[in-house]
């Protein structure tokens, strides 16, 4: 009698990740790191000692969140973190204030570039004001 391995594509496959440090990427783009303590059939998750990690360029900052409950429909990706590899990443850790300031500066720069791009498109005859000129 031979044994055929079972591969699970449901929340049951999370059993091997219990009590391990995981990274969860949420639908809104946030990244949460914590110890997976519990889950259910809908992939609702409970993370302990969690933190929200914000990346800007070659730097990151962590905001402590404590116990974090995540509704399963908001999970895009979940993966275990290798503690040895985490320490070798070529990223600098910044304070929360520094990383939030960099995030604001990055958003302002993106808004400035978008404004210039929209002006160029408007000069070429394209409509970029979708709210007022959307013909659907």
TrEMBL record:
It is found in: Cytoplasm; Cytoplasm, P-body. The keyword tRNA-binding does not apply. GO terms for cellular component: Lsm1-7-Pat1 complex; P-body; ribonucleoprotein complex. InterPro entries: Lsm1, LSM_dom_sf, PTHR15588, Sm, Sm_dom_euk/arc. Keywords: Coiled coil, Cytoplasm, mRNA processing, mRNA splicing, Phosphoprotein, Ribonucleoprotein, RNA-binding. One of its GO terms (molecular function) is mRNA binding. It comes from the Eukaryota. Pfam families: LSM. Residues 9-84 form the Sm domain. One of its GO terms (biological process) is mRNA processing. Residues 97-124 form a coiled coil. Interacts with SLBP; interaction with SLBP occurs when histone mRNA is being rapidly degraded during the S phase. LSm subunits form a heteromer with a donut shape. Component of the heptameric LSM1-LSM7 complex that forms a seven-membered ring structure with a donut shape. PANTHER family: LSM1, U6 SNRNA-ASSOCIATED SM-LIKE PROTEIN LSM1. Plays a role in the degradation of histone mRNAs, the only eukaryotic mRNAs that are not polyadenylated. Probably also part of an LSm subunits-containing complex involved in the general process of mRNA degradation. Component of the cytoplasmic LSM1-LSM7 complex which is involved in mRNA degradation. Belongs to the snRNP Sm proteins family. This is U6 snRNA-associated Sm-like protein LSm1. It comes from Coemansia reversa (strain ATCC 12441 / NRRL 1564).
């Amino acid at each position: 009698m031979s044994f055929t391995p079972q591969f699970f594509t449901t929340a049951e496959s999370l059993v091997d990740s219990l009590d391990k440090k995981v990274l969860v990427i949420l639908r809104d783009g946030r990244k949460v790191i914590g110890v997976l303590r519990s889950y259910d059939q809908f992939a609702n998750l409970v993370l302990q000692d969690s933190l929200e990690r914000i990346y800007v360029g070659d730097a990151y900052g962590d905001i402590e969140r404590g116990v974090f409950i995540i509704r399963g429909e908001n999970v895009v990706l979940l993966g275990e973190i290798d503690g040895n590899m985490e320490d070798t990443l070529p990223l600098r850790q910044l304070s929360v204030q520094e990383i939030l300031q960099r995030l604001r500066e990055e958003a302002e720069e993106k808004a400035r570039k978008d404004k210039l791009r929209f002006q160029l498109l408007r000069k070429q005859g394209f409509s970029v004001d979708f709210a007022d000129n959307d013909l659907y």
